[in-house]
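Slide 14.
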Amino acid sequence: MQKSDYIIKSLINATGVFIYVSAVAWLGFNNQIIFGEEDSFLTPLFTLLLFVVSASITGLLVLGKPVLLYLNGQKKEALTLLFATLVWLVMFLIGVMLILLLW
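Slide 15: predicted structure.
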């Protein structure tokens, strides 16, 4: 792959993480409206299961392709894709931080 392909692929991965995290944050913000205010054993169970699923999904989006590339002997390409994805995620983080500061 060319370098621009890695940049586009990393942007797609980082955007997927951003969208997924946004959806989980929305769910957490609106949990009392969606699930009601009554606490039960199911609330922490749901939260922990959501945490495990979230870690798996974001882990796959960030690390999935780089690990495959690395295992196939394309170590430089794997690191390029991983760090490009992390750079996009940091840029999204800075963008959200700026919105929070300027809001």
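Speaker note: The radius of gyration is 17 Å.
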